[in-house]
Write a structure and sequence with these properties.
The structure is a homodimer of 293-residue chains. Chain A has 293 residues and is of the alpha/beta class. Chain A has 14 helices and nine strands. At the A-B interface, strand 8, strand 9, helix 9, helix 10 and helix 11 of A face strand 8, strand 9, helix 9, helix 10 and helix 11 of B.
Chain lengths: 293, 293
Amino acid sequence: MRVGFIGLGIMGRPMALNLLRGGHDMQVWSRRPASMAPLLEAGATGHDSAAAVARASEVVISMVADAPDVEQVALGLNGVADGASQGLAFVDMSTIAPAAARGIAARLAQRDIAMLDAPVSGGEAGAIKGSLSIMVGGEDAVFERVKPLFECMGQAITLVGGSGAGQVAKACNQIVTGMAVEAVAEAFNFARKAGVEPARVREALLGGFAYSRILEHHGARMLARDFRPGFKAWMHQKDLRIVMESAHQFGLALPGAATAAQMFNAMVGAGLGEEDSVAMLKLLERLSGTPQS
Amino acid sequence: MRVGFIGLGIMGRPMALNLLRGGHDMQVWSRRPASMAPLLEAGATGHDSAAAVARASEVVISMVADAPDVEQVALGLNGVADGASQGLAFVDMSTIAPAAARGIAARLAQRDIAMLDAPVSGGEAGAIKGSLSIMVGGEDAVFERVKPLFECMGQAITLVGGSGAGQVAKACNQIVTGMAVEAVAEAFNFARKAGVEPARVREALLGGFAYSRILEHHGARMLARDFRPGFKAWMHQKDLRIVMESAHQFGLALPGAATAAQMFNAMVGAGLGEEDSVAMLKLLERLSGTPQS
């Protein structure tokens, strides 16, 4: 398939490379020409605007930072909509607010461009391995058309519902994983302060209802004091900002997610933003007056 | 083995029955004679005090409500210590504060009685099936002696550390599971308010890092609106009270666990205490002005 890809950063680059390896005819553009280089070397065709990418593509994928970037790519001057030919599908895989995704989809629909929101979970490692979870919102027929592309990038691929539903699922994912990281860090810090080896506690908990992938994988990294990202704390902070803004719009109380959001704010303020989210443990150690290495 | 069992309630009764089925010679006593009946019918020997149970046993197990009850059973008038013969091991499987468990163990040690703290996770269903997780604190030699009894009642059996370590692990377990129940309930409530089917969100999340046993099992019960206990909300409230009191003693901040503890307080205040902890979803629905059935 002729596939455009815009946003060749930490996540986008390995995702685009996996599409290329999957045999797709890749069209790329980036504001920073250096970002395109690895893709061009691998056989992609470079363009000088998002519109030009769209002109050469059947599906255009974006993987950028936040809603204003998606809007710019999709609807800005020389954006995807300006170059779209008949039947183009636009797939945004960034994490943005559900309401923003729905708004962009509605404006694209007025120009006869179908959009899917398809944010991912699994981090850089998942992007490289092609094992991302992909949560999709949009129309069934468009999903079926794009699915072979998703299968080059991910493993658990779910059409959650209509427009925005992918972003809603991603928001839920970040609530659950953010609170789980906080829970495991609090539990380990509690255990150590109580004179018990956190590694033994993790082992005891893995066999029961406390089991989670976060306890298993992120918990192991906390114990190894391996705080390299992975998924940077400032990115989880950003995702929880989206969650809390949406909750504000909905008139919805999320007491646990709100506390987790505050803890991620504090991590960034404490200079831990560039470390993995598991550095939450460090923040808690400092907070209880027993900082470790 | 000649095994005493004191505390034949919702959890204790099926645990004692599983020991009986495992071929052990069971000695029982209860303040309420009616509680003993099912055990006596099944072949246990009844006694008129904890001391009398201890006199006839090599190991005495208690499964009662809180620290004062354990203290009464172990050290009160006509308690276990009063009837203990040489080499008796006392195993408390109740959930109490780590400091209380350590205090009782220290006082029993002065009378040459070894104690293990061995709280469980898995609820009534796990007690009936003999599939409890058992988190143990105490000395290795005592653990090895008692292990065949644990194997009649549970599957994941871990010696976490010295005296009190079982209770520390249980506290960690209740932090992690309490926050996980809250996280899943908040995510589902968010999804519905955002116009997305929570069941689809659960499905999308199960395949990624958000996976937990709570999302799988408790999440399914939330979606089925099956709020029957299981594990009653007031019991989780009580366990988180122990956690927060211990955190107070340690001078330790547990922001996420504190929020979860407040939510369990609110559940009890809202008349949801006798329902399963998954009724957290109902509380959040009321809080956001969209109560369901």
